[in-house]
Write a structure and sequence with these properties.
With about 130 residues, this protein is an alpha+beta fold. The chain has helices at about 15-60, 65-95; strands at about 105-115, 125-130. A hairpin with a 5-residue loop joins strand 1 (about 105-115) and strand 2 (about 125-130). It starts with 12 loop residues before the first helix and ends with a strand.
Length: about 130
């Protein structure tokens, strides 16, 4: 007696054709299901990618630093030249209202008030007004 089981009886040609047809139908059905699942997974992947992009865009829009940069750039673009001209005009007006004076080297201190006597004969003075002559 041998340990190998007895081989099944060979199939007829008609039985082989029918078996191959059934296997082909099963493989085609499985292939269609895999294709359907692939399409579903592609849609899920696309939706997840769009959701991720939307989340990053929303995060960037709500970032105070980024929003401040946008506002600053917009303001600078719209009124930057005007602000520069106003600053220059303010400087011009300040210079026009305070013309430079020549200092003659003479100071007159009209009033001095002693504020402390240090006991050694030295006094500290408060100067209330200094007048430039020139």
């Amino acid at each position: 007696m041998s340990d190998t089981p007895a081989s099944p009886a060979p199939l007829s040609d008609d039985d082989l054709r029918e078996t191959l047809d059934l296997l082909a139908t099963a493989v085609a059905s499985i292939s269609d299901r895999v294709d359907d699942q692939t399409r579903v997974l592609d849609r899920v992947n696309k939706t997840a990618t769009e959701a991720r992009s939307a989340a990053f865009a929303a995060q960037k829009q709500t970032d105070p630093e980024h929003y401040g940069e946008i506002v600053g750039a917009t303001i600078d673009g719209k009124i930057g030249d005007t602000l520069t001209r106003v600053g220059q005009m303010a400087g011009d007006l300040l210079r026009a209202s305070n013309p430079p004076r020549k200092f003659s080297g003479k100071l007159r201190m009209p009033s001095q008030t002693p504020c402390a006597n240090f006991g050694n004969g030295n006094r500290s003075w408060i100067v209330s007004k200094v007048v430039f002559h020139g």
